[in-house]
């Protein structure tokens, strides 16, 4: 598909009046829409109303619309945007069309909430940012792991220095995806998925990792195609230095029989751990004090009340509040770009054999236009 040239974005659609539902359109009706987004939308009751759905697969579109009682269905996004004029469009289509669809949504005056992988390159992401307008519309990325109470609590403790300085960290997404998973035509290909498991699987955990630890400065990485019949990799590993001085490792895999999503941050006063698979609750977070830590200090680390798990619903509720107030969502702009920049730097390091510094990949660099820089693994 040819790249759409961004035009001057129009003024955002007026926010819903107080008490009126946010009008939502669903773009793509595959499993993530049917099994995750639609239940999240319905759980919010009258705060939202799904007005329309769009898909190029007419049979799947009709089935999902019937199951969720969605009255208007379209096979053309531009027509949907013109006729329905939604407040928010949720992008659940394959990643190769995300840029084109998100820019179209923003140009229509609607906000966009885009599934991962967000786009195929930093250049495409910057096209999204260029199509935004101050006060909205904005394009937010689905990074739901930031929105559980466990992540908010850990971020506060780290920001306030209550755990001491972060020293050593580890981010791990080791999942198992068989050949049938990769039989979907767009998976496992640089030009349609963007990259391997760091992009398609581990990006959520990487986003949370960076959200907690702050800016990184250098990354050295390796990537391999070890067991799956793919064009991309199926395993990446990396060593990272953060601007704070903390040192870390990152592992992403689609070939690991015992699946886990795991974060560990060793600080001066405590080790913080998160151990889950596809989503966490407060009980999945563990704080282990350093020997000799006073009990009253440990007490200060405990959440005051039970909170909420990470979920699309939690992020959606926050996004709706942002939309109503015209406030930039936290997973848009530079903050939404961070994980993609880090992943691109990992692949540049792995494919060139060189350490990559944060902020060094820009226009003119082949890795700015494609995560693999046009290179292939041996």
TrEMBL record:
One Pfam family from the record: GFO_IDH_MocA
Signal peptide (residue range): none
Domain GFO/IDH/MocA-like oxidoreductase: 152-272
Family annotation (InterPro entries): Gfo/Idh/MocA-like_OxRdtase_N, Gfo/Idh/MocA_Oxidoreductase, GFO_IDH_MocA-like_dom, NAD(P)-bd_dom_sf
Residue stretches making up the Gfo/Idh/MocA-like oxidoreductase N-terminal domain: 22-132
Superkingdom, taxonomy of origin: Bacteria
A GO molecular function held by the record: nucleotide binding
The protein, known as: Gfo/Idh/MocA family oxidoreductase
Lineage: Bacteria, Bacillati, Actinomycetota, Actinomycetes, Jiangellales
């Amino acid at each position: 598909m040819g790249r759409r040239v961004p035009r001057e974005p129009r003024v955002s659609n007026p926010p819903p009046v107080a008490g009126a539902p946010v009008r939502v359109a669903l773009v793509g009706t595959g499993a993530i829409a049917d099994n995750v987004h639609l239940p999240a939308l319905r759980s919010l009751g009258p705060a939202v109303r799904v007005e329309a759905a769009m898909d190029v697969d007419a049979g799947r579109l009709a089935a999902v619309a019937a199951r969720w009682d969605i009255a208007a269905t379209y096979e053309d996004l531009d027509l949907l945007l013109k006729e329905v004029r939604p407040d928010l469009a949720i992008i659940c289509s394959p990643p190769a069309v995300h840029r084109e669809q998100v820019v179209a949504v923003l140009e229509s005056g609607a906000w966009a909430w885009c599934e991962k992988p967000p786009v195929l390159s930093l250049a495409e992401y910057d096209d999204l940012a260029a199509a935004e307008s101050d006060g909205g519309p904005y394009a937010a990325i689905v990074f739901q792991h930031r929105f559980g109470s466990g992540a908010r609590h850990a971020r506060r403790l780290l920001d306030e220095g209550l755990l001491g300085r972060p020293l050593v960290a580890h981010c791990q997404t080791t999942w198992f995806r068989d050949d049938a998973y990769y039989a979907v035509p767009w998976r496992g290909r640089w030009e349609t998925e963007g990259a391997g498991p760091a992009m398609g699987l581990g990006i959520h955990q990487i986003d949370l990792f960076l959200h907690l630890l702050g800016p990184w400065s250098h990354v050295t990485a390796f990537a391999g195609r070890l067991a799956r019949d793919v064009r991309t990799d199926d395993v990446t590993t990396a060593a990272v230095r953060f601007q704070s001085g903390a040192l870390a490792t990152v592992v992403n895999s689609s070939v690991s029989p015992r699946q886990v999503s795991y974060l560990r941050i060793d600080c001066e006063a405590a080790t913080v751990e998160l151990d889950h698979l596809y989503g966490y609750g407060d009980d999945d977070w563990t704080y282990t004090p350093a020997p000799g830590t006073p009990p009253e200090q440990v007490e200060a680390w405990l959440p005051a009340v039970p909170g909420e798990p990470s979920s699309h619903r939690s992020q959606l509720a926050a996004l709706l509040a942002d939309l109503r107030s015209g406030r930039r969502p936290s997973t848009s702009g530079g903050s939404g770009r961070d994980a993609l920049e880090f992943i691109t730097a990992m692949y540049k390091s792995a494919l060139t054999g060189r350490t990559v510094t944060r902020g060094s990949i820009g226009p003119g660099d082949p890795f700015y236009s494609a995560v693999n820089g046009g290179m292939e693994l041996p």
